């Protein structure tokens, strides 16, 4: 799919990434609806709540990942040449993009790639990614399930499914900026949203001007927003 998209995209757009910049190509493909191994995330919990609630037909969920621990483990395991604490975020992202391109190129090889996750942001945002404060998480091994790459990214065995149920009040009371090594940390959080709460969430997001119209733009965003504003409220 990547090869065919590259060969035909010039027919529809004058702005295309460099030939070997596969992460940029994949983010563009995903933007236009093609399935890739990139997983969409956002810096905004409110935008995450919109996508969770608007697409739900039952209980919804928001996934949050500890970006800092993922990044630190990635740099330590693969010896990425970037000084954490001194390098700018853009410099770190360029290292991640370079590392991601290397693993995309290696997917056709017979050697088994190590499991992990790479957090990346495109070099050039599309209008939609900018509106949605978007970023991506890419598994280094496309032959293994995403959850196996997730476990490896935080140093857990693939079969380790340790979970802990925590009430939202206790979760909000935690200091997530506490970098004490002895402090208990959650690598991944799955925040469950009851079905009865989803309509209220969407109503509140309208008051914050978070709708399909503002997140997607264009006439298709306007059409989708009418479902949220008129049918569901």
Ranges with pLDDT <50 over ≥5 residues? none
Distance between the termini: 39 Å
Shape: globular
* Strand runs, count: 5
Task: Give the amount of beta strand, in percent.
Answer: 5-15%
Largest sheet: 3 strands, antiparallel
* Strand line-up in the sheet with most strands: 1-4-3
- The residue fraction in helices comes out at 40-55%
Q: Please, how many domains?
A: 1
What series of H and E elements makes up the topology? HHEHEHHEHEHHEHHH
Label the structural class.
mainly alpha
Mean pLDDT: 85
What is the CA-atom radius of gyration, in angstroms? 19 Å
Number of helices: 11
Which labels suit this protein?
233 residues; mainly alpha; single chain
In terms of topology, how is this protein built?
Blueprint: H1 2-8, H2 22-31, E1 39-42, H3 45-54, E2 60-65, H4 67-78, H5 89-105, E3 117-120, H6 127-131, E4 134-139, H7 146-153, H8 168-173, E5 188-193, H9 195-207, H10 212-216, H11 218-231
Antiparallel strand pairs: 1-4, 2-5, 3-4
């Amino acid at each position: 799919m990547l090869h065919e998209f590259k060969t035909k995209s010039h027919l529809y757009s004058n702005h295309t990434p460099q030939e070997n910049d596969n992460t940029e190509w994949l983010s563009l493909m995903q933007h236009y609806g093609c399935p890739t191994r990139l997983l969409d995330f956002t810096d905004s919990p409110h935008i995450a709540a919109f996508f969770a609630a608007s697409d739900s037909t039952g209980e919804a969920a928001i996934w949050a990942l500890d970006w800092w621990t993922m990044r630190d483990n990635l740099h330590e395991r693969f010896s990425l040449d970037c000084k954490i604490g001194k390098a700018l975020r853009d410099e770190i992202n360029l290292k991640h993009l370079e590392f991601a391109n290397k693993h995309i190129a290696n997917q056709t090889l017979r050697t088994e790639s190590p499991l992990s996750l790479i957090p990346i942001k495109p070099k050039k945002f599309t209008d939609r990614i900018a509106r949605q404060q978007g970023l991506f998480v890419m598994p280094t091994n496309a032959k293994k399930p995403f959850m196996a790459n997730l476990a490896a990214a935080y140093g857990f065995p693939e079969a380790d499914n340790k979970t802990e149920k925590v009430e939202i009040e206790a979760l909000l009371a935690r200091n997530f900026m506490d970098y004490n090594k002895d402090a208990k940390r959650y690598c991944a959080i799955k925040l469950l949203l009851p079905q009865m709460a989803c309509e209220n969430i969407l109503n509140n997001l309208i008051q914050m001007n978070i709708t399909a119209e503002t997140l997607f733009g264009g006439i298709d965003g306007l059409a989708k927003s009418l479902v949220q504003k008129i049918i569901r409220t």
